[in-house]
Amino acid sequence: MTRDELRDNVPDPESGPPVTVPTGLETGVPGDQSAVTSGEPMAERAPIHAVLLSALLPGGGHALIGEWLRGLTVLLPWGVLLGLAYWTWDRIADVGAASLDDYVAMVTLFGSMLLLWGWAMWDLTVRGRRAAARRDSQWAIAARQFKRNRLALVGLAIIVLLYLVALLAPLIAPYDPIAQDDIARTGFLPPSSTNLLGTDRFGRDVLSRIIYGSRISLSIGFIATAISITIGTLLGAAAGYFSGKIDTVIMRFTDVVLAFPRLVLLIMIVALFDASITVIIVVLGLTQWPGTTRIVRGDVLSLREREFIHAAQALGMSRGRIMMRHLIPNVLAPVIVTATLGIGNTIVMEAGLSFLGLGVQPPTPTWGSMVAEGRDNLLGAWWVATFPGLIIVLVVLAFNLVGDGLRDALDPRLRT
């Protein structure tokens, strides 16, 4: 053997045998290699006894392994819903006599319980298959930022609670909201153990009317805002992207709508038609879109000059596809904030119309009409108007807190 062959066979001290990088199967996590390749540790698998406990009592498994906050977040609402199902079981069992409202309440009740149970099981079992690394997408970063805002989380919890109350109204309302008894005996009763928030002049329970009134106010606020946001986003995107005559026509029409007093327009339209829920929703939805149009148009004017839009045009994509697939998804952040704040404004506007007698007509309860009914007895029966007014303030404050939290989370300039 020559000297060169001997030199080639000598192992290099700096280069050892090839090191096999463990795959997801070798680390106990099937198919997950993201954490290995990124050098970050894998998330620990939950013990089997915690999973079994969570299957019997959602949230109990989290508490067993020391995650008390997650456990209580699931356990408390699930226990409340379970208790509600127990107390109203006679009504739930009488399915044959149930109305549409009762079916909606039942589906909401058992659907919420199933959702909480499924989330608890998913969080305990699936996270053992996930890498500890997080995806750094813009929406993930915004979600983590939003979770750090405690006021926004409180507002979100209030909103979710109120919508659950609205959907579960037939099961949790203590009395019929429109039933009347002996007015001389039951009218203007103060808050007591029998009527927690008192009664109005017709002897109707104020708490029950507030619960049923939440269905009207919250549904009008949500649907009307969804209509206005949809119209405003489409018109703003079309005006900003197509420009030219289309932009001129859309924006001049927007200026006309903005220049006309909105309250006067609402009163005029509602006075011409019968005041029903459908009319109120359509009127509010068709008069609230100009602000969204201006915001979306301004963002689209800057986005249409970006490189990815020019690349889409070079690939031969149609204008409609570019607007729907590339422009509108990139302006959703301000649109979401506008929608959140708009729901609160719509609820206040609907309450104002009901206060003026132009909203949903009695005996259907709404928060605004309840305030109007109690305004003449603020000294003798203060509870009739006070509690609905406080609920309106609470709802609007909750939506504003969520809107501020979303604005801080979605705007990179405001992130800390």
Range of helix content: 55-70%
CATH architecture of the largest domain: Orthogonal Bundle
- Please report the distance between the alpha carbons of the first and last residues: 68 Å
What is the fold named in CATH at topology level of the largest domain?
MetI-like fold
Structural class: mainly alpha
CATH superfamily of the largest domain: MetI-like
Number of domains: 2
> What would you call the shape?
flat
> What top-tier CATH class of the largest domain fits best?
Mainly Alpha
The biggest beta sheet reads:
none
| β-strand number | 0
Q: How many helices?
A: 21
Q: Rg from C-alpha positions?
A: 29 Å
Low-confidence stretches: 10-43
> What is the helix/strand order?
HHHHHHHHHHHHHHHHHHHHH
Strand content: under 5%
Mean pLDDT: 82
How would you characterize the overall build of this protein?
It is a single chain. The protein is mainly alpha-helical and 416 residues long. It has 2 domains: 46-133, no CATH class; 183-414, Orthogonal Bundle (MetI-like fold). It is 67% helix and 0% strand. It has helices at 3-9, 34-38, 48-56, 60-64, 68-87, 89-93, 100-125, 138-147, 150-167, 169-172, 183-186, 206-242, 244-259, 262-272, 277-286, 290-303, 307-314, 319-327, 332-355, 367-374, 383-410. Helix 12 (206-242) packs antiparallel against helix 13, helix 13 packs antiparallel against helix 16 (290-303) and helix 19 (332-355) packs antiparallel against helix 21 (383-410). The longest helix has 37 residues, at 206-242. The model is unreliable at 10-43 (pLDDT under 50).
